[in-house]
Amino acid sequence: DADRLLVAVLIPAPVDELRLGNVWGQYDGLEVCIRDKQDTVVGRRPPTFVFRGFADGVVRGEVPPHEWGNEPRVRQAGEAVEYKAYMDTAGTFWTARFAIPFDALDISPTPGMELWFNIGVRRTTGGGDWIALAGTGGPNHQVENAATIILE
Q1: Tell me, what's the pLDDT at 40?
Q2: Phi and psi, residue 110, nearest 5°
Q3: CB contact at 8 A, 34 and 61
Q4: Cα separation of 118 and 110, whole Å?
Q5: Average pLDDT in the 56-73 region?
């Protein structure tokens, strides 16, 4: 929609085996990582927004370790995110749905605008998996090594 970035991911996993909680890496969850590719002010690194949603329904904005100066801004953006975790009634998957307001990202969306982007999934069932939309050679939040989305 014109005001929010909508992201939905279906995660195959036996629902009755999910680890519910909200500590990244220890429980089932999904992270959406975003940075404005056009924000190139000299001497300032634009914030990387990392929104972590968990299978228990909790969501929050997290700050990558090298960006502590952006912590208040990212945490405030996390409070603006609408998030829902849905469990499949057949028990074979769960779905994470994010609605991320562009205002919270300090972005005025325009057609053709590019955002660095990545998704990371922590699945604890079946021995535990770390899954990424794009491998970065490091953490998922190193979005400059990940994917680019282009707004319409």
Answers
A1: 66
A2: -135, 150
A3: no
A4: 20
A5: 84
Q: What is the DSSP string of 122-135?
A: EE-GGG-EEEESS-
Taken as a whole, the chain contains a residue count of 152
Instruction: Write the DSSP symbol of residue 75.
Output: H
Q: Please check whether residue 7 is in contact with residue 88, taking contact to mean a CB–CB distance below 8 angstroms.
A: no
The chain-wide mean pLDDT, for the chain, equals 92
Residues with Cβ within 8 Å of residue 107, at least 6 apart in sequence: 36, 113, 115
Contact predicate 39/144, CB 8 Å: no
- What is the token pair recorded at 74? 């990212």
Burial class (CB in 10 A: 0-12, 13-18, 19+), 138: exposed
Confidence of residue 25 (pLDDT cuts 50, 70, 90): very high
How many other C-beta atoms can be found within 10 angstroms of the C-beta atom of residue 28? 25
Tell me: the pLDDT tens digits for 103-116? 999 899 999 999 99
Among the listed ranges 35-39, 47-51, 135-139, which one has the minimum average pLDDT value? 35-39
| Residue tagged 């325009």 (tokens) | 110
